[in-house]
Amino acid sequence: MGVVPTVLVLPCPAQGHVNPLMILSQKLVEKGCNIIFVTPEFIHNKVVSSMGNQAGGDNGRSPIKLVSIPDGLGPDADRNNIILLFDSILKNMPAMLERLIEDLRLKDGVRVSCIVADFLMAWALEIARKIGIRGVLFYPSAAAMLALQCSIPKLIEDGIIDSDGLPTTKKRFQLSPSIPPMDTEIIWWAKISDSITEKMVFNISLQSMKTLESTEWCLCNSTPDLEPGALSFVPKLLPIGPLLRTYDHDQGVTERSLGQFWEEDFSCLNWLDQQPHGSVIYVAFGSTTLFDEKQFKELALGLELTNRPFLWVVRKDSDCSNKVCFPNEFKGNQGKIIEWAPQEKVLSHPAIACFISHCGWNSTLEGLSNGVPFLCWPYYADQFFDKKYICDEWKVGLGFDLDENGMISREEIKVKVDKLLSDENIRVKAREIKKKLMKDVDLGGRSSENLNKFINWLKE
Ligand code: UDP
Questions:
Q1: In terms of domain of life, where is this protein from (predicted)?
Q2: pTM of the predicted model, to two decimals?
Q3: Is the ipTM of this complex over 0.90?
């Protein structure tokens, strides 16, 4: 018997970071590793409660051990405040993590052999180095975004950003001939909320870049079929994507996905079964996007105007989840509204025609892997660049145009849905990309081989 590595996995505390690292953890388990999946308490509690009674026993599905450590904030602190949260994480979690590893060794006889840390939690690799275990980074967004980060010194030198990482003027630039041109609008760390938060995120990512220099591997959720230019620009990246969930079919379609912050509403799958093939507009904006009331109402009326069935995720925590926000004229007869979808299962359902998406990287990969065309509605951070990839590079979707008030009107929604669904070229392209991605992750495919390479290294 070979060595059974115990890997400590540390995501950044956000749904779009937890999901890919949970999928990676499940893949590592399938290949004979033990996983300690560490999140701050507030995330841990969400994950465990979304599992309902499946979370019983040893965290439901051993051998992934879900472990929480405090983030240092009080129970009522506003954890949506990124500055507050990250400041506290950086002050408190390193010592907690070190103690956890020590306790695992002394109390449970478990020796962690490697830490896999999200790029924004790169500080954890300092601990790995200190206690003499291995560490690798995981980059959760498009590789092009890391290529952009690697170019920070040059961007400063060329006067595109200032030393705080903020764009000086609106400019177009190109990192390499094989990476699509960018402009200052897509500098992700400058598209978050306010300049203080953006400077802080910029500084954290600068720190992570230093860590990157001294690590052997940086895993990423991508593949050369999607991003050949960006992946050759950052040779340290090991593409193992798209990371997709595998389900245990014996447990049926309602098997819950580990790592979700909200309970998935499986009733939508029965509803989808009753819709004609290729008819339903799936509408979901990820885990953090918030709508202003006016735009939310316009979206509701736009969906109605399409006269097509739609499945719309309106999260409990989005300001518009209560009925008051739906406009009076909105009947919603053709649609189904749910609070959280089993998204990968939805996207793979034959009834789905297209995906109105905020273009988060995970949603992008999930749509691509299922051959679903996109209507892009980016909100912040890297979503604007993902939209560029979808519309201009891979040509599997369309964007929306804003009206004179900076809104996406109901008419625009109808026009773009009709245009997308009558575009055969987009459908063909979407199917082609799906085929390539499935080949990448299948046995012997590039991403699957890269994952094996990583696992062999873990077992050395
Ligand atoms: N997701 C889900 N159900 C939903 C909406 C989203 O399971 O109703 C999942 C989705 O499959 C993806 C993640 O939440 O894995 C969102 O990540 P993404 O990068 O797309 O967006 P973010 O939430 O980071 O903005």
A1: Eukaryota
A2: 0.96
A3: yes
